[in-house]
Amino acid sequence: MRPPGDKVDTEKSVRELRESAAREIESASTARELEEARVKYLGRKGLLTSILRGIANLGEAERAVVGKAANRAKEELTSLIAGKRESLEQGLRDASPRQLDVTLPGTGDWVGSRHILSRVARELREMFVAMGFSVATGPDVEDAYHNFEALNIPEGHPAREQGDTFFVKGGLLLRTHTSPVQIRVMEETPPPIRMIFPGRVYRNDAPDPTHSPEFHQLECLYVDRGVTFQDLKGTLAHFARRFFGSRIGVRFRPFYFPFTEPSAEVDITCIACSGGREKPASGTCRMCGGTGWLEILGAGMVHPAVFRHVGYDPEQFTGYAFGAGIERLAMLKYGITDIRFFLENDLRFLEQFA
Amino acid sequence: MRIGYNWLREFVEFDMTPEELAESFTMLGFPASCVGPVEPEYPGVLTGVVEKVVKHPKADKLVLCDVSSAERRFKIVCGAPNVRDGMKVAVATVGAVLPGGLKIKKTSIRGEPSEGMLCSGAELGLSDDAAGILELPERTVSGVTLDEHMGAAETVLELEVSHNRSDCLSVYGLAREVAALAGGTVKFPDVPTAGANGTAQRGQDFEVDIEEASDCPRYCGQLLRGVKVGVSPHWLRRRVEIFGFRALNNVVDSTNYCLACFGQPIHAFDYDRMRQKSVLVRRARQGESLVTLDGTERRLNPEVLLITDGELPIALAGIMGGEETEVVESSQNLLLESAHFSPPVVKRGSKVLGLESEASLRFSRGTDPEMAGRCLEYVAGLITSVAGGNRSGKLIDRYPERATARKLVVNPRRISVVLGGAVTDSFMQQSLARLGFGWKTGKKGVEISVPSFRYDMSEEVDVVEEVARSYGYDRFEERAANLSWVVGADEEQELFLEECRSWLVSLGLNEAVTKVLVDPGKAEQFLEPVSGEEPVRLANPASLAEAVLRPSALCSLLEAVSVNLRRGAEDVRLFEVGKVFRRDSGAAAREHYVVAGVLCGRKGPPSWRGRELPECDVFDTKGIVEGLLRKLKVDSHEVLCYDGRVLERELAGYICYDDKRLGVFGAVSRRLLRTFEVERDVFAFELNADELRKASCERVRFAEPSRFPAAKRDIAVVSDAALPQSEVAELIRGLAGEHLQRLELFDVYTGEAIAEGKKSLAYSLSFQSTRRTLSDTDVERIMQRIVQGLEARGIGVRGSSASAN
Ligand SMILES: [Zn+2]
Questions:
Q1: Span A116-353: which CATH code?
Q2: Contact (Cβ atoms closer than 8 angstroms) between residue B705 and residue B786
Q3: What is the ipTM of this complex?
Q4: Which of A135, A204, A350 sits opposite B512 (nearest CB)?
């Protein structure tokens, strides 16, 4: 080794060291090789470190030149090593297999579900509440007055002689519709009334895919000064489009109910065949029987006789009312094929509507 | 009800296809559908023209014909003497089936091919002429079906008529509606005549008397002589069959046809079998009886109106005729009756006898008294034209008090308001006039006169509906209702129940909606004998298994558990928010909402981590209940030992609030599990939701959290094993005083190092003051107080320490 006093030599050896160090760093293929290179040049006894230590023994002019070169070399090498380390680690990550199989199922608790009936009832309730309606419920065990007489269905009326009423021992009956709640509310409250009436109703029908002795209804009543047939149409069309989708067609056709006049049944365009526009392969649509329409509810302007029963003045007030079967609405919307599924509570049915 | 499209066209003109007609009926309030064409009478038989006739080369009596039917050409061998060029004929093509059952095939006759047959009148069942082929009129269009040519082609429509519109239970009634819609008029058909059908003037052959005019406002009778009962012509059979009757004979078919056409029931008596030649309409006497057409002997009473021959009953007026005077094959002389009976009288009679007929259905809803006479004229003409015979004597018409049109006074402005201003007075007037209503402006309003056939019109609102129907429901615009402030009712209850549902769903339970009508034997087991409560029973259950209203939601939830287990489910976690019903002996039924649930199976879902998950137990149901109470801010509640029979006494408890039982939780009793055929443990809870809502804190008051640090300590105590933990906790709470923020039980231990009959309970306590930082000395003083207090009550303290956490 040459004596350290040689200025030219010292500067030159710094340059050479830096170059050979850079080559070794670049060619390191493992973290270990990189570390060896670092120790060789920048370690406590490293080659570059020794030069830096020896600077103190140099002459003043030389000290400045060599010191500057050596310090710059150290900075450059440090940065080269950091860069190399980063890229070696990245390579390791890319190459090594994952430790954790993230496709294993997560652990957790049971997932519950809402019953589709209560889900639809909630949807309807929220829809009507947003339109400014309030909610009322009433007893399932009713008297004949509220279920029939007050609704303009006197004794002997054909609607009362269908034999589908369940009577409770002791003279009461199970309500055949939620309309008696309308009467109870009107008896207690002066107009205006804007309310919906959800609840269970009972009819002595033999169970089949579209009949169940127990089912649910949502009725609606709006009484005020100047309520018109157009208001009824507007509310129902809005409801039908919100519930079944904005592209659904809605039609009103005359019908007969004892408690409303004019009365109407409301149809929507068939969901299965888009109102007859898409003919199924089999020829006739099974859902609508080829008519293109599905009946969804009954409606009408409240009959003055009903108002007289509750002490409202039909000269001053008019109103509309309608009633829909919640099961029927759910069956149409979700394609449920048999009404008996609703009260059976098979988990394979319930869990579909979580 | 079924009618024919062409049939309807005989009564009213309109320009609609059968499909359009069905649509119009639907929009008029008679839901209708097009059933389709009736089965052809002459399938495969077409009209055609004989183009050329040449002699058969091998047979003298046969000819070879070239026949055309529109574009089609046939070569047919024919033996009829009258066949000639240019003749219009009925061609039975290959595949045709003739009325006698003869099927036409492609054949070869003496070496000449024949692709069909030219039909004779006899082969088509149209005449007795079998010798020559049937010659169709010169104007006949070639190439249509014979059915169409003869007007026998028909398309059937099916429609529903609501029971208030009895006037539309006939083709004529529906024609009136179509006429009003299309702006035309309905026409009453010409009375059929059978050539020279002179009325034999023989004077009066019978008398008619009516005891009470209000029972029978009109009675028309006509005697026919020399009638020959037999088979009806084809068109008549076909029409009565379309309407839904079975074709019987030319007399019965004619009377049924009149009912179908006009809604007017007609009865025919065998005049010769009437003992007295007179008619007396009167109420039955107690003890009288009559054997009706169906062979049943009917015991009568004064609620039933009768037709008698002056002495004995011969028919139940408006309901059914008697067997004795029934028209039979040999009948020759007939007394025809066309009457108007009081609707309530027929309805009552039909009900007390339990006997309904097409006639009683119409009379009890109301027939048009104005039609009775015309219909009798029509049916008399029809019978003599299809069954021969003559009218004998004049038509007798007892109509003492002609019905006056009912009047309704209406206010057109009010009608207009209900219909949102869509219709004008003149529109109302015009549309009502088309429907047969009169319109007279008076001082009080407009006086509407109601046509005699409209039984459904009794007040202004009925007129509103007619106007709305005429205007067309689809033409009213859709409007958004005006907003006015309305009072609320049960929203809070609904929101509260909604809160319960979402909590239980969040705990991983599936919501169920189960039946309310349950088996009495099962329901019984949910009532405690000591309570004196009874289930609410139905008087007319559909089946014995659904005869009472459930006293507990667990009754139907356990059924659902049983069903699901049988279908292979391993874990069943259900809840329901619904009503239950009970009554105190003799009192009225009470109903209230409950929140109930059942658990069966593992605590949590199966996991790949392989730990065998324990099964649910009592504390899972209690945990759900306590969580719900906390969620609903029911601030304090007590748990008492269970002494009922629905749950296992050792494994259940009552949840009480303010000395009232809110509900129960625990293991379902073995006895009930056997009843529901469940072989696994089921844990259940049921809370009275109405009481729960009362107990639930309506509005929480905010308390500012303390800004000072909390100090934590643990304490382990040893108490008698029988001492309820709740008492120890209460004791600690009392001793700790106001600074105790939280007390948590984190371990219960018996066994090694704990004496027999004792248990160890470990609690963690957290102290905090709202006013200052508690010093160690403060906390030590409190802990000392607790230790001393517990020891004074005989509860040992194993140790206490500053809490690890
Ligand atoms: Zn369809």
A1: 3.30.930.10
A2: no
A3: 0.79
A4: A350
